[in-house]
Amino acid sequence: MLEPLRGFFRGSRGGRTGGPPASPGGRTPLNGSPAEATLSVRPSRGLEEFFTQIRDTSGLTILDLGGATQKNVSFITDLGHRLYSEDFLRMLNESFGADDTVDQTNPGRIEYFLKQTLDYPAGHFDGVLVWDVLEYLNPVLLNAVVERLHYIVRPKAYMLAFFHSDDKQDAVPCYTFRIAQLNSLEIERQGMRRPAQLYNNRSLEKLFGKFDSVKFFLTRDRLREVIVKV
Amino acid sequence: MSSMPPARIEAEPRGGAATVGKAVKVVGQIFSREDLYIDGEVEGTVEALEHKLTIGPNGTVRATVKAREVVALGNIQGNVEATEKIEIRKDAKLTGDIRTARIIIEDGAYFKGSIDIVKPEPVKVAAKVQAPAPVAQTTAVVSAPVATGAPEMKR
User: Fold this and answer.
1) Is the pTM of this model over 0.80?
2) Does any CB of chain B come closer than 8 Å to the CB of residue A66?
3) Residue B1 lies in a domain
4) B95 domain residue, yes or no
């Protein structure tokens, strides 16, 4: 699983995935500060596709890895679903340190991190809003996380993940994603952050090779919205 | 659970709410029949079924919490059931599962757990109101006062 991604891996051990200490919202920009946050709304085909799968059924269990925001909580629960909230990036910083001093390949650390963030029974979730958090994981940790997601999400369920597609950038915009409507997102730019690796369609297909299917939507702002079917 | 006799918590400095001050640690069960403000440390269970429970900015609650309304400004670890609503304010930290009719989460708040939105059941609530209360007023079983001395109890 790691080999195909190695060519996309950037930076030193752990890159800068840890970033500086967690901000209250868990988004920790590499450059910039929350004071620089800019807000915009944009359509999201990926989100639309995700909700197409879950909006006609109530009582589903959805996991949001972007941390709790009022809009996402209201939107998901108004559809009659149960929402689990996990501030993934904040926990990433807490588990692996803010200054890249702890290797993300350390098995003990990885196990601890998974226990803190994704310790759920098999097939527990009917959908996962992954957002862009996978971009900041080194290959070893990334594969452990993807493996765990495959375990805790029920078969035939969907996940929505975002990946930047511009392989010329050392740092990418870091966002907080809030659901505005079924097909649009309010995105709040929190600064820049260096991804651990960058992706193309091929590498993403390999990353999610164990999953049933992967569908891509490329946005105008060079973001790949990816719908993964378990 | 402690075998010590229940102690009364009688402070009312916050608009009629009983208070667990920031130098107080309570281990055990708290049942409140009035609004309750916790700015200290509580381990066990907290119930204020018909009232508002506020966890102050210095408050640390490791407990199962049930109240009509919960406002979190401090730290809660445990499941929370709020029949009316729960507010998780900026800088608050809540780890646990929430069952409530309405939830408000401010930006900057940390929450880890699940959220179940449940509609209030007026018939059952009415039945509970008529049932005799197990204890009078706000009572707590206190077994481990903080190092600063005896529990703070004022009205």
Assistant:
1) no
2) no
3) no
4) yes
The answer, for A98 touching chain B at a CB cutoff of 8 Å, is: no
CA–CA min distance A87, chain B (Å)? 7
Indicate the length of chain A as a whole number. Answer: 230
d(CA A177, CA A189): 9
Q: pLDDT grade, residue A28 (50/70/90)?
A: very low
Q: Name chain A contacts of B88, Cβ cutoff 8 Å.
A: 68
Question: How many angstroms separate the Cα of A195 from the Cα of each of A134, A167, B16?
Answer: 9, 10, 52
Residue B145 belongs to some domain of the structure: no
Tell me the ipTM for this assembly: 0.76
Nearest chain B residue to A178 by CA distance is B107
Question: Is B113 part of a structural domain of the chain?
Answer: yes
Print the domain residue range for B43.
7-140
Number of domains present in the structure of chain B = 1
Q: What distance in Å separates the CA atoms of residue A64 and residue A46, rounded to the nearest whole number?
A: 15
Q: A85 CB near a chain B CB, below 8 Å?
A: yes
Confidence at residue A161, expressed as pLDDT on a 0 to 100 scale: 95
Beta strand A213-218 with A38-43: parallel, antiparallel or unpaired?
Answer: unpaired
Q: What is the pLDDT of residue A192?
A: 76
Q: How far apart are the first and last CA of chain B?
A: 26
Superfamily of A3-229 according to CATH = Vaccinia Virus protein VP39 (3.40.50.150)
**Residues of B with CB below 8 A from A78's CB?**
117
